[in-house]
Amino acid sequence: MNNKFVRAVFPGSFDPITNGHLDVIERSSGLFDEIVIGVGDSSQKEYMFTGGERLEMIRQITVNMPNVRAERFSGLTVDFAREMKANAILRGLRDISDVQYEFQLALTNRTLSGIETVFIMTSETKGFISSTLIREVARHDGDVSGMVPECVAEMLIKKLGK
Question: What is the pLDDT of residues 43-99, one digit of tens each?
Fold first, then answer.
């Protein structure tokens, strides 16, 4: 019997976090002893929400998940994973179009660090949701309430001044 503590990092920009992300977090929380959601900051990317806002949204949403926590990071995911003493990198797959990119990323991360990547398929009812889609729909006054947690929908309304 293996009594090893298994910690996974779930990296992403989460700009904003969606019900698809939440689905992956909820379903994988039973597979790992701990999940550290890595809220990435990149100087090469323009975000709708600040890193602090994204971190706060995730903390609100996961407050009742005792083995889930969120931290900000910048730089390589593998460096963050090492810093968190993670055994695995968790990634969500929405559809077949994600597979090629995620496969390449997983092989690169394993080559750099030896850390394995574990993939969780999103629920078939949430596979179409992406942060990019949410931002676009929200900018055009569309209703995103079924695609993001309530606090995220409220922050989108506030951020866009609507």
Answer: 888 999 999 999 999 999 999 999 999 999 999 999 999 999 999 999 999 888 889
Give domain status of residue 117, yes or no.
yes
Is residue 136 included in any domain, yes or no? no
Q: For residue 69, indicate whether it is catalytic.
A: no
Quote the number of domains for the chain. 1
Instruction: Give me the catalytic one of 45, 97, 140, 162.
Output: 45
Residues sharing a CB contact under 8 Å with residue 15, sequence separation 6 or more, in sequence order: 47, 48, 49, 54, 131, 135
Catalytic residue among 21, 54, 126, 135: 21
Check: CB of residue 81 under 8 Å from CB of residue 41. no
**pTM (2 d.p.):** 0.93
CATH number at residue 119: 3.40.50.620
Tell me the residue range of the domain where 120 lies. Answer: 7-127
